[in-house]
Amino acid sequence: MTVRIRFFARFRELLGAESMAGFKDGTNIADLVRSVTEKNREGYNAIFDESGNFREFVILMQNGKRVDVSDAGRTGISDGDEIAVFPPVAGG
Amino acid sequence: MISRRELERYQRQILLFLEEGQERLKQSEIFIAGAGGLGCPVAIYLAVAGIGKITIVDRDIVEQSNLNRQILHYDRDIGREKSSSIAEKLTEINPDTEVNAITAAIGEKNVSKLVGNADGIVDALDNFPARYILNRAALEKKIPLFHGAIQGFFGQATTIIPDKTPCLACIFPKAPPEEVSPVVGTTPGVIGAIQATEVIKYLVKDGDLLANRLFIWDGKASRAEEMAVERNPACPVCSTSKNTTMHKRVR
User: Fold this and answer.
1) Quick one: fold of A2-86?
2) Would the pLDDT of B245 be above 70?
3) DSSP string covering B195-245, please?
4) Whole-prediction pTM value?
């Protein structure tokens, strides 16, 4: 089973635009994003804090629907899902 | 009434939204929060479009390091209040537009008075704490909020219609970290032009707004994308009072 993970803005600079990832039954969104980013220390640190939790401003979408980062650890994924990981920007 | 001179000045856009649309622009007041990277292009395009009144608020003075992107402030303006600098240029660009430029920091206490009875609020700010204050004022007064933000080559924009779309806190419940962000001047040019387009469409009642959609610009890849965004039923800013009331009624 595979899902497509898409990164936006600064995350894209660090991790590339998108990647396909295989996963096992029972994997949740947090595990998935961790496994895709853990080999890229800078990219991982941009998304996760020191405790390994999503940074609170990160925006996650599953098939176009918002998933709160605090729910990502208990939100399952299905074959063919598209997960988007987006960092809002603040400048003006 | 649109004068003969105005008919000529705005001829090419009256082809798009008729004299009726132009009259709407003329009768409108837009509040622009921020006279920086985003505020400058937003103000230019709203002034040339013939918006009747622009109120623009900024707390800062023009610095040398602003000039790569804040295109209404010139070299000679360094050290001058941004509000005064921008008012002068806007009046030169279009003397028909009344410009009310104010030097102030937008806060809880003054936001309501500053926004007044504007027909639209443009978020051209550079930090989320002030944006959340503006968001609450827009919701309370039921005035549309045209959000934009930028960093580096990246930008985002959305249009918030109170009671109809997610509010800023539904979309961004937690502020991204504040940092001295790198930025190239064209990024606020892109996003500011989109915000101004949204304002014009809203006022002349034409086209589809960026409502319930977050526009995302990646200038590095030259790609524009969008995300669907939804109201958060548990949003502490736009939903609490309603939920509490309903809850009480059900009981």
Assistant:
1) Ubiquitin-like (UB roll) (3.10.20)
2) no
3) HHHHHHHHHHT-S---BTEEEEEETTTTEEEEEE----TT-TTTTHHHHHH
4) 0.92
